[in-house]
Design goal:
By secondary structure, the protein is mainly alpha-helical. It folds into two domains: about 70 residues, no CATH class; about 70 residues. The chain has six helices and no strands. The protein is flat and about 55 Å long. The relative contact order is 0.12.
Length: about 160
């Protein structure tokens, strides 16, 4: 049997990796958008309710108002769920692409300063007659919020190159 040395097998070309990914990931994912808006809306609704602001539309159900300050925790939990969805659906970076984030340093400094100012403001007005709407209502939870901003600053520091 004669052997053909000119026979070449050509495999189909692999898909080009330079084409844009049509999948919606990160903060463009619909679930991340919905959860993020729900968390921000929940927090704003409770802030307006606590400060005595008039909410447009129907009244807030009694079930929500009975939760009291737990509404802050619910808003934060929903925002954390949105962040989890966004981070777990984000597309993988291309090889050689920088993994850092250009806004990491300003956000790190800003978050640390906000946390420090939050705690200092709380300690400054805690034993006075001055009442700030949110800070006075939260009581000692202000320390948790201030430390949360400071911990977030450490999180931003991990993204800095």
């Amino acid at each position: 049997m004669p052997r053909s040395s000119n026979l070449q097998v050509r495999w189909p070309m692999a898909k080009s990796t330079s084409s844009p990914d049509r999948r919606r990931g990160g903060w463009k994912h619909p679930a991340a958008i919905v959860l993020g808006l729900l968390g921000v809306g929940w927090g704003l609704m409770w802030l307006l309710r606590k400060t005595g602001g008039d909410l447009p539309g129907p009244n807030v159900p009694d079930v929500i108002t009975d939760l009291g300050n737990w509404n802050w925790g619910i808003a934060i939990a929903v925002l954390l769920a949105a962040s989890f969805v966004a981070s777990s659906t984000a597309p993988e970076p291309e090889p050689g692409q920088s993994l850092g984030w250009r806004y990491a340093a300003p956000l790190m400094i800003g978050s640390a300063v906000i946390g420090l100012l939050w705690i200092v403001t709380f300690y400054t007005i805690s034993n006075t007659d001055v009442e700030l709407p949110v800070i006075t209502d939260l009581g000692n939870w202000n320390l948790v919020i201030g430390m949360g901003f400071i911990v977030a600053a450490f999180g931003f520091a991990t993204k800095w190159e």
